[in-house]
Amino acid sequence: MEFSPLLIYAAIFVAILLLIGAIYLLLFGKSIEHSNAIDRRLNLVEKSVGKADALEQLRKERARKKSAFVIPVYGVLQERAAKAALSISVKTLFLLMLLIGSTAFVAMTIATDIALIARVVLAGILGYSSVYLWVSRKAKKRVDAIEEQLAEAIDLIVRGLRVGHPFGSAIAMAGDEVPDPLGSEFRLISDEIAYGRDAGEAISEFAERVDLQDLRFLAVSVSIQQKSGGNLADILEGLSKVVRARFKLFRRVRAITAEAQWSGKFLSAFPIIAMLLMLVLKPDYYDDVKDMAIFMPLVIIVLFLLAINLLYMRKMTNLKV
Question: pTM here?
Answer without folding.
Answer: 0.68
